[in-house]
Target: PLAT domain-containing protein
Amino acid sequence: MIGHNESGRGHGWFCQQVTVQALNAPPPDRKPEVVFLCNRWMDSGCEDRRLVRELIPSGEILPPDLAVDKSLSRGKWRCTVKMATEDELDPSLTAIQLPEQVSLTAYGTRGTAGPLKLQDPNRDLFLLGQTDKFENVVLGGIGNVQKLRMSAGQEDDDNPVWMIEQVTLEDVDSHEVLHFDFRRWVGEVGGDIHRELPVLVAGQLPPAVLEYEVQVETENAKDAGTNASVFINIYGKNGDSGRRRLVTPRSRVPQFQQGQTDIFLVEAVDVGKLQKVVVTKGPGHPWQLNQVKVKAGRFSAVSHIFIWSNTIGSPSEQTEEVSITIPVISTTPAPVAIPIKQANYLPTSGGQWSVETVTGEKGVSGEGTDLVLVLCGDKGESSPVNFLPVQDTPFKPRQTDAGVVHLAQDIGELIKVRMGFADNSKNKSLDIVKIKFEDVDTRDYFHHELSRPLAVDEKSDGWTEFPVVWPAVFVLPVIVYKIEVTTGSVPKGTTDADVFIQLYGRMGSTGRRLLKKSNNEVKFQLGQTDVFELEAVSLMSLDKVLIGHNDATAGKGWFVKKLVVHPHGDEEYVFECNRWFDGGEDDGRIERMLTLNEDAAPTPDVGPAQKAGNKWVVWATTGSGSNQGTSSPVVVVLYGDKGHTEPMLLGDSPDPPVKFTEGQTQQFEVASDVDVGKVYKVRVGFLGDGREPLWYSNFSHSPSWYLERLKIQEESSGRQYVFEAKRWIRVDQQHDHWKEFPVYTRNEQDMLPVKEYYVEVYTGDANFAGTDANVYLEIFGDRGDTGKRHLHGTKAPGNMFEKKKHDMFIVEAVDLGSLRKVKVSHDGYGAGSGWFLDKITIKESQSSKEKYVFECHKWLDVDEGDGAIERELPLAGLMGDHVDAATDVDWQVRVMTSMCESFSGTDSKVTLTVFGERGTSGPQPLRPEDGIFHPGQTDNFEITLNPGEIGRIQKIRLEHDNTGKQPDWHVEKVIMNNNLGEEVKFTVDRWLSYNMMNGNFPSDIVCEAPAKWPDQQPLSRYNYIVKTVTPPDPGAGTDATIYINVVGSRGDSGVRELRRNLEQPQPKFQEGLTDSFVLEAVDLGTLEKVIVGLKNPSSGTSWKPQCVLVRVSETESSLEKENYVFPWGKHLDARHPEAEIMLAEVVDDYVEREITGLTPRGSAPHTYRSPREGGITLEHGESSPQASPRTSQTLAPDINRSPRAGGLRMQQGPHGDESGSELEIGEFSARSDY
Model:
């Protein structure tokens, strides 16, 4: 047992190993060193927060004078396996099954040997208490042995018992002896049949034995789960874990089921930096795996993410094993300790920190003693706290100053500290070289050394940030953000005001920072881009920025075009603006929150982590009356029998927020990490974002919204809850903006009542006991809480919260049951904001005869007592009274690249076009983080579609530009999910390439796939055979690239280049030849026209297509199909590079053969006649009396009769190209005009 007694985070110790050896023994009796591997923190902020560890021997190391000559080794070893005795096993195990087989795998510096079965047919092996020896175990030339894996039992053993106690390997020739002590696992039931240990070498620290935490997430889709066994092998820079079955010992919960996350532990010698995992599904149902997360130890600071989002195995492979390899996609920070609430033996923080500063040689200049601190955590930031040292003359050179700061807010786990000045308007500096922090209650400790003074000057704004360095945590780096601000070219759009910016990201914000030193001499001029640098602790990915200035005078504003932020390298975040920041322009705002431009999405340092947990669909119905809607951001909090969510925003962003329209029911998707269980109430309010004090001082500034009805549905269970509201959400004389509603039931007697709690607040009679600060109260009962509520509108005369004052307020909430405690606080507003609170009493209604009493008798003042301005007051006792416009919908697009070839990925530029019943999205760029679609990888993107413009999705078109080093791309499928809970799938299974084949036909770089909705039959996908006929006229042919777009009643094929001629090996588009091509598209309906053209023609380039024929082929083997005829007969050139040709006729295959000069011998000719009204008619001759009526159809006006029967002829019109021409195709004649 080893440990220490220094409590407090940061006072701990990481122990890697302990060795014990008897000293002063003579050489014959000298014992080996006994090694106890630890590799654990002993720190109250790490792992299980314990300071003491009990260690078990892991092996022995020979003394130096007993070392051996390894050069004698021939790779043959003697292996001894010692089994545990029955006394060492759990006596409750009534039937112990001995391992049927034992094997070993040895890893060396030059290779791996094994698994090697340890067997001897002449004796019983591996009996309890027995030691078995095996001669001539051949490990070969694997070099110096580094680790040993022992395997005891079969992979399908559900509850194996580990019985191997010790293993010894002795080299037969060099007599090197390696000891492996497996006693720590003896008696463990269930789980892994494999255990491994490192080789212990004198003078070297061995690699750690880690418990890899493996989280496996199954897709939340129908039939996504599997009944098969699942195995994993974790690979790192230093080796692998070996194949391990993922099983939870003695668990009765089925694993790998739909929407489920299963967690397993895989114990192995440290494999180094993780690179990939190999996941194997055994025989059984196919399995839809979403992703795997692996941490190198339960409390590793980083989680590695391996995304698959695909099926493993198919129905035809249910009797086989199927393996996949997934590389590391991204990493994300992870908790390094159990929640502090689980360590109830440790003291809790009251938010009071002892701070020490060491001043450097430069001391202080100007009025630089007004130092303020902002502590930032995973729940938010503290308000700026003044650091007031106890010394009379602080911050002298080389002086240490001390003081205490008090945090009014619960900011969660500390991440970073921001230091600056209270007043940044004047030049000043303060040379702090070191600062120390220690929590007064918990003794948590950290410090930071600064490399330069804090300064306000022409370059610096007086702020600096540094990360909190706790033991074991992922420490965020300090980086320099390059910020480009473009001023619009709008008259009077410049400014000389002080401009500030605040960046927001995954890890919080930078705080408000002034943009001081530009690359330009004069900042913010018309059409100018100013570049600034801002140093801050990394926010990881960015999602929004706040930018503004300090001059609210009308006409003194600024017009901002856009903002671009570069964290480092080529990474770029674009925030479009094009708005005024002027008190007299636009909406009068001088600061705005800008959200990320989706078309310029960046590649973050750490892969994006989608919010885990429970998803809900919310339908909100706004009242239909005048001005009952709102454009203010709305949040909801759900309460259930297991807990409550955090406030969840309805909509994607608070700026700009969703507009709630009168008379409309709008749908949203929200998510929370909290499983609330069965819902019983909801709280609805506005996202104040710091503006609430203004609302309470002037109610007219408060937003308002009339909520008619709210309905929610839990995505995982499908359970729905309805809340009949019919209330205004707004601040009034007695209530804050929060409103609570119970779940609606048909029998109103079963619904929870909404109560008006009468709250009486007694301010004490101490000197200066009153306060002008904003006071907040949170009431807790058996059935949840009220949330943090603002107290205003006292029923007592005079100002609130004055000395010896008795104020009475109303807090409305769904019945809380019996009250248990309250939490009271204030925001520190105003000079002398401290407040002495005597007590609080609460009645459940105005007529209630009983009061709940909560005693305080303490200051809520940073400068009095313990400095707290928030207090939790437990119940002291009870006493009697005597004492429809559619909004945009966000879609997640998952594109799955196939693993059919090692080169099936692409680095070309890819676009996706979505087609619906009403319209199309236009090409949407899809670009992975590294610019490459890798084989076997699923790439995730987000696009926004307007359902009013698109309608229900019918098909997609994927295409790329054929650039890059590897343009050939094979796509397996595409899946789209939206924030309304809808999912649509597209089976692609095609090459997008000019070089490959899809079945019997050449592939294209454009591919279409029909939408597969659960309730709708998908459209068919057809091959369209396109034939071009070039006449034998001199100069009719071309070597140019020709494209076509086939248009039908259901849409078009998109522009396709006619590249690969089915009539090979003849050259394309030459005089007198017919060329054939295939074009695959989702059913275009009845064909109406084709658009053909020359791609990028140069001067002198021309082509004269006689006609284009298109045949619809449902399958590759279809022979007799109708042909659509599109006659032309004019030159296309640089002046007229494109022609739109309307459908002339639909003929059968027999007629098509004659049109293209392929009339079979003995076939009847075709005749032509011109209708009196000026159209043309194509019909069979007299020798074909059975011709279908469809083969006679009027085509186009202004026709000249053809004097010939047969052949191809183009007759120039009397006025040249401008007057048109006469086309004769066999027996067909038609006039065409530009």
Notes: The chain has a mean pLDDT of 84. Helices lie at 692-697, 947-950, 1149-1155. Residues 1149-1155 form the longest helix (7 residues).
